[in-house]
Specification:
Blueprint lengths: L3 E4 L10 H8 L3 E3 L10 H14 L3 E6 L1 H12 L5 E7 L25 E5 L8 H11 L2 E4 L16 H16 L9 E3 L8
Length: about 200
């Protein structure tokens, strides 16, 4: 059974965030417990995420915001870790936000696993064109949710069944493309969310 490791960002993902909902509704999902989410330390967070990957090899990583950036750091530093795929939701730009500046620079090369970037056109944490550029560098599929804010609870993303469906699609692709060496497809989806 493939586990889903949910990787929160700055301040964690408390209710009613979609990651909190996902952890409650998916028996295969585990939320990665990251120390001091209000003042993150990249070295500590990397060690904590790597530890969870070692405990749950061949998991799919689902990161939000700074959690998505953390995933790219782990995959760049330790490509030998056994990760099946990575879903990067609304990555934040550490170069543009001082609270997360220690996570800069963001890796800009092909990731070692199949990956999918879920993007919003009006995300205050990273510009849309910058995210498209990174998605191409990562060789990740790119999902355009339109004007979806930061794809968090403030933007209306509490229960988010579409997120699970995208994870399942990514897992299906990873089964046919295990080395992740595929050009990123661009997908445009209608915005489907559930407010809480």
């Amino acid at each position: 059974m493939t586990r889903t490791l949910l990787v929160p960002g700055l301040e964690g993902s408390p209710a009613p965030h979609w990651q909190h909902w996902w952890a409650l509704t998916d028996p295969r999902a585990i939320t990665v417990d990251l120390s001091d989410p209000g003042s993150p330390d990249p070295i500590i967070w990397e060690a904590e995420l790597a530890g969870q990957i070692l405990q749950h090899p061949d998991s799919v990583l689902v990161g939000h915001s700074l959690g998505a950036v953390l995933i790219t750091r782990i995959l760049a530093k330790w490509p030998q870790l056994r990760v099946r795929a990575a879903m990067l939701v609304a990555p934040a730009d550490p170069a543009e936000h001082s609270r997360i500046g220690g996570f800069a620079p963001v890796a800009e090369h092909a990731l070692s696993v199949p990956a999918m970037v879920i993007a919003s056109r009006n995300d205050p944490w990273m510009g849309f064109e910058r995210l498209r550029q990174l998605s191409r560098a990562w060789r990740a599929d790119f999902v355009d949710l339109g004007d979806a804010g930061h794809i968090n609870s403030e933007a209306g993303y509490g229960p988010w069944p579409q997120g699970k469906a995208l994870r399942d699609e990514l897992l299906a692709r990873s089964a046919t493309d295990p080395d992740g060496a595929h050009p990123g497809d661009v997908l445009t989806l209608t915005r489907r969310k559930t407010t809480v």
